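target protein:
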Amino acid sequence: MRFLITGTAGFIGFHLARRLLAEGHSVTGFDGMTRYYDVRLKQARNAILAQSDRFRMVEGMLEDRSALYQAAEIAEPEVIIHLAAQAGVRYSIEAPETYVDSNLTGSWAVLELARALQPQHLLMASTSSIYGANPTVPFSETHRADEPLSLYAATKKGMEAMAHSYAHLFGVPSTMFRFFTVYGPWGRPDMALFKFSDAILNDRPIDVYGHGQMARDFTYIDDLVEAVIRLAAVPPHEDNRVTGDTVVDTLSHQAPFRTVNIGGGQPTPLMDFIRTIEAATGRTARLNMMEMQAGDVPRTYADPSLLQALTGYTPDTPIDRGVSAFVDWFREWRVQAAQA
């Protein structure tokens, strides 16, 4: 199949594109190569994808509709997967305009593109941050998500709302998938695993927010990619509406539109996560215990039952295996980055 993927120089987009290329699909990537974090990491990911003759890359910002349409002309996509975004809860306090530009204006540009192209399926990356400080766990897609605690979450909620309206008005089958703390090799430097591993290996203290009384439903990158690929084969339609007493489908009654959690439903306490990194690095962390940061949430906890019902799959990579894989990659990356 032919895929157009935004954000292929990013962590998730890179892994997804590499998997699709390995399976024989054609992938056109679109990415802005912004300097939110070390561009060398993005360039290295992109260089790996460029080794395939079935990969094409167009560089540009989502807000630049001419560049986005150029990518679409090359791709002639059957499926569009929108991963590009301004990520990060904390950075949204410092640079809110970048979130509005990318996650709202940029996502609208992708919706306009889908309106014009009418692909078989449009998939857009949302986030577990949408659930805010919801006290009811596990987080179900049917729970209210009307009280975001960060602008990042608010822009993703806005993207979901815009996508529903476009699905209703223009009939593009659209799936919003909500990620739960994705981690693994080639991960982003602003994520906890990267920062903690870097600090521990260099004998620097790590900042532990919420005094360690937090938990995250960590999702290993390979599990996420598997779930996205399986979801791509299930465009929202009445023919695949999930029925039964134990799972509530989010398929809209007004549009070919659905929201789906991608998480394993196995939250890991933050201090257990740190101990897992210590075991993988063979070092002991020095802890700087701090208050909860503005916009952060105490825990995330996915209900994966809809994902399981639709795809027969639930993320299940053990946290120790995933963290070890990251640390092995990170040791190699440190050497490469130092030599560059």
Remarks:
- The chain has a mean pLDDT of 95.
